[in-house]
Amino acid sequence: MELWQALLLGIVEGLTEYLPVSSTGHLLVTQRILGIPESDASNAYAIAIQAGAIVAVLALYRKRVGQMALGAIGRDPIGAKLAMCVIVAFLPAAIVGFALDDLIESVLFGPWPIVVAWVVGGVVILWFARTKRSQEGRSLEELGWRAALAIGAVQCIAMWPGVSRSLATILGGVAVGLSLSAAVEFSFLLGLVTLGAATAYKSLQHGATMLEAYGPLPVAIGFVAAWIAAVVSVRFMVGWLNERGLGIFAWWRFGAAAIVVAMIAAGML
């Protein structure tokens, strides 16, 4: 892997990780465009550089994370409740991901499954935008463990590349009664645990293979690029959603799907 490729992949990861457009789908397609073949090393790289995006959200939401940490040691009841909800929401993905990881990679890590997921997700976004429920709902402090578990179950759908973990958890949050802003924040917090676990799992499973194939410098460049790009992306997304909603991301998904279909037709993928 060339260093400029690592930089580009890091930027793509950071910009798309928390947007409802699927970072995994964008990364897999970008890797194929760059001529990086599918392998354990390339799949592990796509997951490992998520650590940069995790650090970005840790910094941006440090007060909320600190509240949850205090709750874990019994010093903040609201933080304790939120930490419990995050853990409960993480459990379905942990179980399903561990059981079906190899099957998912062998069947769904390809251009056509990603295109299908992009299109279906775009249709869902447009349907959601028509409901006009974006600012109504409960605050994050009112979230209970049953609703958190439901959000976690919906998150499992995002193991299909192209679906988007952010989209699934945001819409899942709204579906259980959270306001859009509360659903977005919970999606980010849940992402810390989910992405952190996925990064650790892939690094332990295929980290040595990844480092042997690419070396440590491309991994470091991808991490830093993802970190910086994620800071920009998260700040943009929060402001955009509060003002204009999810609609634009449906057209982003349709456009990405159309480009990939054209490239497949032209023999480029």
From TrEMBL:
Reaction catalysed by this enzyme: di-trans,octa-cis-undecaprenyl diphosphate + H2O = di-trans,octa-cis-undecaprenyl phosphate + phosphate + H(+)
Pfam families reported for this sequence: BacA (PF02673)
Keyword Endoplasmic reticulum: no
Superkingdom per UniProt: Bacteria
Signal peptide: none
EC number(s) given by UniProt: 3.6.1.27
Main location: membrane
Entry's transmembrane regions: 44-61, 82-100, 112-131, 143-163, 175-201, 213-238, 250-268
Location of this chain's protein in the cell: Cell membrane
Membrane topology qualifier: Multi-pass membrane protein
Note: Bacitracin is thought to be involved in the inhibition of peptidoglycan synthesis by sequestering undecaprenyl diphosphate, thereby reducing the pool of lipid carrier available.
Protein name: Undecaprenyl-diphosphatase
Source organism: Sandaracinus amylolyticus
